[in-house]
Amino acid sequence: MLLNAMEASIAAQGARTVLLETAVDNDAGVAFWKRHGFTIAGTSKRYYLGRIDAYEMRKRLSATK
């Protein structure tokens, strides 16, 4: 519910996309974000601690009226 509320709030302010990063070895986190409509858009090399890659995950928000 909190995630839905945040998405609705920022969409109402004009945001159309949400971007986040999560470690590539964070299987539970990646699965969580995918369940909530995020897709992997890219990879940032050595994003965490200068050695762990991160997935860039995005979600397109629905336009509000």
What does this entry look like structurally?
This protein has two helices and three strands; from the N terminus they run αβαββ. By secondary structure, the chain is an alpha+beta fold. The protein has one domain (2-60): 3-Layer(aba) Sandwich (Aminopeptidase), CATH 3.40.630.30. A hairpin with a 3-residue loop joins strand 2 and strand 3. The chain is elongated and about 40 Å long.
Quickly describe the structure.
This protein has 65 residues and is α+β, with helices and mostly antiparallel strands. It has one domain: Aminopeptidase (3-Layer(aba) Sandwich).
Q: By CATH's scheme, which homologous superfamily applies?
A: Gcn5-related N-acetyltransferase (GNAT)
The CATH architecture classification is 3-Layer(aba) Sandwich
Please give the share of residues in helix. Answer: 25-40%
Strand content: 35-45%
Radius of gyration: 13 Å
Number of domains: 1
Main sheet properties? 3 strands, antiparallel
Low-confidence stretches: none
The CATH topology, please?
A: Aminopeptidase
Element-level helix/strand string? HEHEE
| Strand-pairing-aware structural class | alpha+beta
Strand order of the largest sheet: 1-3-2
Topology readout:
Elements: H1 2-12, E1 17-23, H2 27-35, E2 39-48, E3 52-60
Antiparallel strand pairs: 1-3, 2-3
List keywords for this structure.
65 residues, alpha+beta, Aminopeptidase, three-stranded antiparallel β-sheet, 2 helices, 31% helix, elongated
